[in-house]
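Standup notes
- HV: blocked on the assembly model, inputs below
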Amino acid sequence: MIYEAGKYDVVVIGAGHAGCEAALAAARMGCSTLMVTLSVENIALMPCNPSIGGPAKAQLVREIDALGGEMAINIDKSSIQMRLINTGKGPAVQALRAQADKHEYGREMIKTILGQERLHLLMAEVEEIEAEGARVRAIITRTGARYECQTVVITSGTYLKGRIIAGEVMYDGGPGNQFPAVKLSDSLRAMGIRLGRFKTGTPPRIDRKTVDFSKTVEMPGDEQPWRFSYISPPPVRKQLSCWLTHSTPETHRIVMDNIHRAPLFTGVIKGKGPRYCPSFEDKVVRFAHKSQHQLFIEPEGRDTDEMYVQGLNTSLPEDVQVQVLHSIPGMEEVRMIRTGYAIEYDYVIPSQAKLSLESKVVEGLFTAGQINGTSGYEEAAAQGLIAGINAALWVQKREPLILKRSEAYIGVMIDDLVTKEADEPYRLLTSRAEYRLLLRQDNADLRLTEKGRQIGLVDEHRWSLFEAKKKRLEAGTQFLQKTTFTPADSEVEKYLTSKETAPLRDRTSLWEMLRRTEVKIEDYVEQGWIQENQPEILEQMEIQAKYEGYINKQQEQVLRFEKMESKQIPEDINYDEVYSLSNEAVQKLKEIRPQSIGHASRISGVTPADINILLINLEKRRN
Amino acid sequence: MLKEDIVALSTPPGEGGIGIIRMSGNGIIDKISKIFLPITEKELGQRKGFTLNLGWIMDEDGGKIDEVLLGIMRAPHSYTGDDVVEINCHGGSMPVRRCLQRCIDVGMRLAEPGEFTKRAFLNGRLDLSQAEAVIDVIRAKTDRGLKLALQQLEGRNHFVAEIEDSLLRLNAMLEASLDFPEEVGDLDYLEAYSILLQIKERMDRLIVAGQRSEIYRDGLKVVICGKPNVGKSSLLNALVRKEKAIVTEIPGTTRDVVEEFINVRGIPVKIMDTAGIRLTEDVVEKIGVEKSKEVMDQADLLIFVLDVEAGIGKEDMDIYQDIDRKRLIVLVNKEDLDKKNIAPGEIEALFPGVKVIRASVKNDIGVEELEEAVEAVVLQGVLPGDGLETMINLRQKNALIRSQGQVENALQTLREVPLDCLGVDIWGALESLGEISGKTLKDEVIDRIFHDFCIGK
């Protein structure tokens, strides 16, 4: 029995990291929004590692924040430790990483969701997405409730036909022993959407009280009051440490003795797993020459003794997992609380989505997060945000928000997803970004907050803080560029000598002097040469001055890149009728339907000749 | 993209009395003005369309490369519809190539195959019905060009592949330390330095080899030398089989270097006849003699002509002193005459290990054997070199030079700039190198990270 339960602009299926961002963005942009989840207790669950950030991921979190998303604010509320990593390697790859109190993270997110105007929460399993023609019309739950809607955002994570595997034990389930979503896969297939199957895994969890920390190395957080969000207040709470240990030759022997029981090697697991997050047994086999692998013991929260063993993700049988743990220094007596497992799940082959994350197959249907074949909370949240924004813009009949590769890591990720064929879950890396030096975590607000404001997601509070910052930055930069010294200034000479750098030869501005490695902007403050003292402003000016040469180099590359990006390919182009395109190019172009010439040129199998032919054809159409 | 300034050689390389370099784009007149010295005082920029301008193309140091006629066609009245300039250089591919290189130096880009035609089409200069013909040309040229270039590279040696592999490895090392700091740790600077150095050295060798490979494209430079009246010009004519050099019985009539392009069994050969080298008071001839010595120094192969009737005298041995013996073929001419003043065994004693051909050029005897010997020199790799004479074209050479520039930058800044900035150069070097093989190497770097390092906490 199906009954009419309500009408919404946007329905979000799933309440993980993608779902939360999607639902909050849509509601904040003025859409009536329904968020459907299998379990209200598991909103914003971290079923794997209890941490957020790191290289490329920190940049994503900052970008989410700059656009008006929630992840940064939420982790600032619930972190138990923060560290800035890659500090000596340059501003573009510096990345903040937080350990999260995973329970608090979820609780804080639930509060925000429930407090959000226009956003309704519903616990149910969606069994069917109803489409009329090739357009979304409604969703139907297992209990027969039908919600009519204009758009649907699916953020179902690894729940679609999820199957848990640990050694010989296998059962259908979602992450953390939740119910899997069984029927949604079939509903997607029925609409003509192609699905693939991936695998990922998680390590065992152990009891803090049974760990001998004296045999491990303490990894404390940084003392500086780091935060992810541009608008969060500084953190005040005490930080918790992580602990470093390692596997031993004995550990590796146990793994090898039981390798015939490892589902990865017996052929039980068919889904492709990620290379950047291999199972421990995979590492032992592939890097047999290594006598030990690093393992981090990370707290899962302030009010729990459960700890996460980073580096030990495995689907070995439970009895082997216990033996493995006991062979590790500090864990000889350890008690396992949760068993590690692998999970296989359905995902939507992402080349079926547009750059807006709307499906090319069904109008008004958006997908985000692990269902698009990605991994990582940050990757999921960033896609959720874009899908939520674009669902809202769709309802409002406005142009979708599409970020370019030269503007944001989000742009790099989505472009990669819809363009490249992936045979493993996609993780963002800084090395995937061509214009890495421009896409820094320190300037995400300068890159994106104005866009967030235009689409109506950046609120008054954030906007006024941003405008104030921008003004100070402009004034400070001007001051640095206009204030000059001559070689005759004894004060400067004394300073430069103390820094063991050459004296000035000509009249030099404070800005130019900053290019020297030895010269630091804090020294200017100390010397009383500048009035500005806000660390964020100082940092921004210093980076822009110090790396100006390289930044300019990248900006020139961007100009060349954007010329090709701006050549739009009309949606109704019929590739079969384009004279002389190679067969492979026609097939790929038909599948991916690139939105610009630049986009087309990134598709494997499309040659420079094909691009020239396309250009000529576009011109022909115009005439 | 359409507004970039492009340049290309329009006439087939290596032959013909004239070479035409064509360029198109809105900035070309400004750019060409930097390297063109007009004979009149009028600036190029002020010249109208459809004018011809006499002047010189200048090298970096302000020296004259070639006297040229430069034709200007102003937009939209040109083949492509943009501003077009055509330089008419003198024949002989060296000046043409140097002029082309100068155009690139001042900021023009080598045109893609079919690009002028494409522009003409896009600017509406060609009829729409011609579109498909244009596309066929581009398809054929681009695909075949890339395929050929690749075949040549892969078939001939693994040098580029090895450089590519080293650069990939270096990229992966760097990127892994940035993306997986806790598993991989810091970049090993010493190793990075030695890889960079090795890459740079290999690139240097390849670039030099590329210059040497011009032999295959621009002709093997063969110089005919010998004292006056031994039959050098007759030999040249026999090879060319047409009367161009003035052949007389009076010593010293060939007062300048005469150049001809011939085709010896598929190998392009640029053959040069020198003025008879001898001590002379004649000023005009003296200039010719000096020029001859200069030409001999540049030669890939020397044919030293002796006269069996005149015998081997001091004058012959003076010339022989100046010759690099490794690149020598001795041709004993006038064997048809009865009077022989070279004793049997004398030659072998004087020129040990040198190929000797006995000929009568007048009667076409020995010419065939000489051609065989020239071919053998090329095929057997007697020429100096290390087997790197790959068919590197100008485009590949430019990509290689760009890549090498970035490698040098990286070497210089290795410890001075942070790794993310270093990455700009190291990635740039790989990207430029990728233009040679037509590969997108970004994804390969990521594959290498996972292949070479144990990633995953």
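- HV (later): unblocked. Residues 304 and 595 of chain A are 49 Å apart (CA to CA). Chain A touches chain B through 56 residues (CB under 8 Å).
- Next: hand off to the docking folks.
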